């Protein structure tokens, strides 16, 4: 629907023109956010969390944990080649992937609890995007200066010094990004060995490829995209908006106290004249320290990640102008109304919603702990042949075949006796197993591995048996007597 | 005329005019980086059309300048698979048949390869689970015409039964009935009932066991043995077994005696490579019937 052909003359005397779709911008360029540094309690907490998280991420692969001879001694290791996941004293096999399910359920519940207590604190303090963006912004500030210097420099034409600073910044960013990718691959192989191999170009291609991928993503997301990730890419802001309620402590501009905003002088005059005057002096410090560049005074919004830097900024301003602290604070929706009605503020952190979340987290945690504590080191699975269900032999006896899998989750070679209960006169043979203990086959299973064998079970007098009867396969370790069993069926007609 | 957009008062943005349950969609501009990536993907797709096979034509398709075809990938992957298996296939070729089961790694390899080859080559007659059907032997039970040792099985798979190859197993159940046959119709019935009695099945009224025994001794025992236990040299079945290849009801046994039998199995030595035939022997032997 173009209006290009309509001449300006034709519009003469027409009513004022409203915007048309054709006038709309096709896209919105990114406004560079020149985040200003800030000091305060919450900023300190953020520094501690940042250093803690990054220290864990970068150095955890080098932590050792002895598990026995010929076993990996890395505390946290994802061994894709052998399908094992090691986490300190825990070793998880692929068939135990439900532990991860438990972890994911826990993670979701913790997120619910965080939101019920204090809104999007995940976004503000713990999210990798926040942590790395904070790190990159710090580097940027260290190289190019704080908000004012950066704005001035960007407004001026390029000089050699400016070009040098920009280059240095990007080089540092790329180095951090490269180290981030490098740390990532260390979780998938023995870290010290891999570091040596990477340095001497002996490492497998896949390691270099992943370092490249993660270098690129870290550099582009934390350095170039920054807040755009939260505003355009990430689903969390949308999801978490639905997880908060009127009692959640969100970063709140207490407009009941701040409005009407005016300059200090105007406020002083108004107070002398007994006119209403808010505490907000419209200094915009809360806006310039914001990592996503939002104005918290517009109320709760998608761009706000609840990091509380505006609280620190506002509190330092309030100190200077001699007004009480906490014009911007972690506060809930209910209190604004309560203050207006002259009631006391309420901070009900312990309330049904948070109690339920905490209870669920505890329950899932206990179930997982119980599962880990009682995890067996021997696993038996028996699978009856689906076709044929039974085979009649020439003397009229009946044979059933099963696939038996024995998992040995200990780092040593172990020997098991396989036996069957409940079937009188049954004969058990295992393919490829010649050793027996009495009538039962003896099976050796290598360290930390699974062995699959085909066994045939023959009943001499099928006429005495019901069409389908229960049989229990039982493995007993020679020496320790450790047992595992599993039931299946024996079918005769 | 251009459409006059509606203005949303809270944001000052125009709306797209779409509305769901009173919620209106804002006409927010896309982020620049997103739009440019979108353009880049369009450019990328054009490049893809040039380089790779992409556009279907009436009877053909555009080939692309690289000349890529997924068929080559398959061939390459199959070659890679052969190379990957070469070590174990070599070990399988070197190991004597009887020793394969003693090495767990080799056994697992042979069973897997045997299972796949069985499904491709043997299942059409013997069934996917090797249970056979009337006239096609069940390979899971312990009734074997030619022997159930692994070497016997390997021999049968390699050269087959009663085919044109001289090395194939030869043996015949002759037709004993009919106008020129050795047995008269009533004698056929008697022998048939004797055979049923051998495997512990009921016989018809008026059947004379003494006569049956005499007829069996003079006509059948040469191949099937005095006690009817069969002869694996000749492929003569054990008649005391519960499992009959063609069926153990009287009618079927009479038909067998009257017309004779002679099932054919092709040999596989020339069609499949030696390690596959070996794997098949190991697999069939492990199905439960192996002796």
UniProtKB/TrEMBL annotation, chain A:
Pfam name, any one: Fer4_5
Record bears the keyword Membrane: yes
Keywords per UniProt: 4Fe-4S, Electron transport, Iron, Iron-sulfur, Membrane, Metal-binding, Transmembrane, Transmembrane helix, Transport
Transmembrane segments: 47-66, 97-118, 171-189, 201-222, 355-373
UniProt-recorded Gene Ontology molecular function terms: 4 iron, 4 sulfur cluster binding; metal ion binding
Origin: domain of life: Bacteria
SUPFAM superfamilies, per database record: 4Fe-4S ferredoxins
Gene Ontology CC: plasma membrane
Residue stretches making up the 4Fe-4S ferredoxin-type domain: 269-300
UniProt-recorded name of the protein: Cytochrome c oxidase accessory protein FixG
Species this protein is from: Phreatobacter oligotrophus
Lineage: Bacteria, Pseudomonadati, Pseudomonadota, Alphaproteobacteria, Hyphomicrobiales
TrEMBL record, chain B:
Subcellular location: Cell inner membrane
Record Gene3D superfamilies: 6.10.280.130, Cytochrome c-like domain (1.10.760.10)
TM regions (residue ranges): 33-51
Subcellular location, principal: membrane
One record GO biological process: oxidative phosphorylation
Cofactor binding note: Binds 2 heme C groups per subunit.
Domain of life: Bacteria
Positions bound to heme c 1: 122, 125-126, 265
Amino-acid positions noted as binding heme c 2 in the UniProt annotation, renumbered to this chain: 173, 220, 223-224
UniProt cofactor(s): heme c
GO molecular-function term, one example from the UniProt record: iron ion binding
Cytochrome c domain: residues covered: 109-199, 207-288
Keywords: Cell inner membrane, Cell membrane, Electron transport, Heme, Hydrogen ion transport, Ion transport, Iron, Membrane, Metal-binding, Oxidoreductase, Repeat, Respiratory chain, Transmembrane, Transmembrane helix, Transport
Matching InterPro entries: CcoP_N (IPR032858), CcoP_N_sf (IPR038414), Cyt_c-like_dom (IPR009056), Cyt_c-like_dom_sf (IPR036909), Cyt_C_IC (IPR008168), Cyt_c_oxidase_cbb3_su3 (IPR004678), Cytochrome_c_Oxidase_Subunit (IPR050597)
Keyword Heme: yes
The UniProt record lists the keyword Cell wall biogenesis/degradation: no
Any single Gene Ontology cellular-component annotation: plasma membrane
Family under the similarity heading: Belongs to the CcoP / FixP family.
Oligomeric form and interacting partners: Component of the cbb3-type cytochrome c oxidase at least composed of FixN, FixO, FixQ and FixP.
NCBIfam families assigned: ccoP
Protein name: Cbb3-type cytochrome c oxidase subunit
Lineage of the organism: Bacteria, Pseudomonadati, Pseudomonadota, Alphaproteobacteria, Hyphomicrobiales
